[in-house]
Structures are given as C-alpha cells and as structure tokens.
Amino acid sequence: MTSEPRVSCVFICHDGGGKILLARRSAGARDEPGAWDTGAGALEFGETFEAAVGREVAEEYGAAPLEINLLGVRNVVRVEPLSHWVAVVFSVLLDPAAVKIGEPDKFDELGWFGRDALPSPLHSQLEPTLAML
To answer: Is the peptide bond prior to 121 cis by the omega test (within 30 degrees of 0)?
Structure first.
C-alpha cells in the first residue's frame, strides 16, 4: 500500500430489529484473518459514496440495500499493515433472507448478532466503527 490516504466506505448492515451482520474474514483476507468485521470497500474514481456502498454490499453479501444512512467519518491509520484510510461509515438496512457470502475468498462465515452478543475475535477496527451506530 502507498502512503497516500485512500477512501473506504464502511457499512454496518442491520436487520432493522437490533441485529447487525458481521462476516468472519477468511485466510485470503487482506488483514486479520479469522476476525469478525463489518463490510467495507474502496471508493472508486467518480463514484458517489452511496453507489460505492450499494456496489460493495451486493458484491460482499449478494443483497441490495433497502436503506443507506451516513453515520460519520473516521480517520484510520494502521502500522501493520501500513495503511491510511478515510473511512466514511454508513448503516445499511438489509433483508436477512437475501444475504449470502458473495466473496468467499474474503469471508468464510456470516452471522447476525445483537450488540451485546458479538462473536470473537473482533477485527481491531470494529469497536470504534460500531460506536458510530
């Protein structure tokens, strides 16, 4: 990764009834394999934030967002692996029945969890992201 900051659209998918969707990162994930995390993807040139979220949700979970809401922005600088992301964070309402693993090279399990019953281990960036919800 270059030292230049990049923009990531992070999405906390939920069912509208208190459960959030998390994905367990597979051995092929870019970082922290085995950790549970929300979805995210890099903003492509000329793309709106909402279009990026819709594209990434469809790619990762095979589902179309029913509602997309901006939660805020986080500055994420990591040493290992070296990266700097401007994370634009959204909440996304999904129909749980429509969700499936769309990128098995990145995720090997999906689950719906209450905020008080999260799986382990959690991705290092998950707690500050969920704090925005």
So the answer is: yes
What is the rounded distance in angstroms from the CA atom of residue 33 to the CA atom of residue 51?
27
| Residue type (1 letter), 37 | D
- Is 79 within the bounds of a domain? yes
8 A C-beta contact, residue 89 and residue 132? yes
Residue type (1 letter), 127? E
Q: Tens of pLDDT along 17-54?
A: 999 999 999 998 888 999 999 999 999 999 999 999 99
CATH of the domain at 126: 3.90.79.10
129 Cβ neighbours under 8 A, 6+ residues apart: 10, 12, 38, 74, 87, 89
130: exposed, middle or buried (C-beta count within 10 Å: 0-12, 13-18, 19+)? middle
